[in-house]
Specification:
heterodimer; A: 107 residues; mainly alpha; 2 helices; B: 156 residues; alpha+beta; 3-stranded antiparallel sheet; 8 strands; 17% helix; 37% strand; globular
Chain lengths: 107, 156
């Protein structure tokens, strides 16, 4: 009986030691973020499948951050990258005045 | 003296109409704070029949992502020659992109439509996020996009 009580007490102590910090973190900082993430996921799922999404392109998609598909090197079967603005004249598609370079600004 | 004046008159007569055929147009697009990575935006024009005429700007440099700008991609097949010299960086959430281009006068009030397709990583594609007729009367008017573009306008 004494042995059982000792074992029970030890188990409860371990559970409290491990579980309480996790519960505390969940109920303070991580709680709102976890809730927001769940809401965002639910919102995306609720938007329906009428339009495609970047995430649906598994297998033909590329990770820009990890450089898995470097278009500058013609990787992943993608078309070569277009010339950046300022390096060549705009295309002669009848929309632009000849020789005029675009001016771009991002705030 | 007379040949010089004649030459001057001739070159002026040829140059002035050419200058009148284009005008600077500034497009301004402010994105929603959608909470994702930088958005790719394709600006392109269709004629009165809805046929693709040409591109005005591509925000985003990785051609592998262009397939997500579905309207533009269907019209061009992703041809990089369509956007040579008119390609820049993608646009972050909540940021404002302002582009000034010297555009042909014939685009205005002639039934042409400007389209802006948008897409961002791990989020929905949005073809025709903005569609506006190119008219003198429409200049200065702000419109809202469907998903990514919070406000769009053009000024002449």
């Amino acid at each position: 009986m004494t042995k059982t009580l000792t074992l029970l007490t030890a188990t409860a102590a371990v559970v409290l030691a491990l579980g309480m910090p996790a519960l505390a973190a969940l109920s303070t900082d991580a709680g709102p973020r976890a809730t927001a993430a769940l809401e965002a996921t639910a919102l995306r799922l609720a938007e329906g499948d009428d339009e495609g999404g970047w995430f649906r392109a598994a297998g033909r998609d590329h990770d820009e951050d990890e450089g898995a598909c470097d278009d500058d090197e013609g990787g992943c079967g993608a078309a070569p990258a277009a010339a950046p603005a300022g390096t060549v004249a705009p295309p002669k598609n009848g929309l632009f005045a000849p020789g005029a370079a675009p001016q771009v600004q991002t705030n | 003296m007379k040949p010089t004046l004649a030459a001057l008159a001739l070159t002026t007569a040829l140059t002035v109409p050419g200058l009148g055929h284009a005008r600077p147009v500034t497009f301004t697009a402010t994105l929603n704070d959608y909470g994702g990575n930088g958005a790719y935006l394709a600006f392109y024009v269709t004629d009165p029949s809805g046929a693709y005429v040409g591109s005005l700007w591509m925000a985003g440099r990785k051609s592998g992502y262009y397939q997500h700008l579905t309207g533009w991609y269907q019209a061009t097949g992703g041809d990089p020659a369509q956007i040579d010299g008119i390609t820049g960086a993608s646009v972050g959430a909540g940021r404002t992109l302002k582009i000034t281009l010297d555009l042909a006068d014939t685009l205005m009030d002639a039934g042409y439509t400007l389209h802006v397709d948008a897409a961002a990583e791990n989020l929905r594609e949005s073809p025709n996020d903005v569609t506006v007729p190119l008219t003198a009367a429409g200049a200065g008017q702000t419109v809202a996009g469907r998903r990514y573009v919070a406000a769009f306008s053009y000024q002449m």
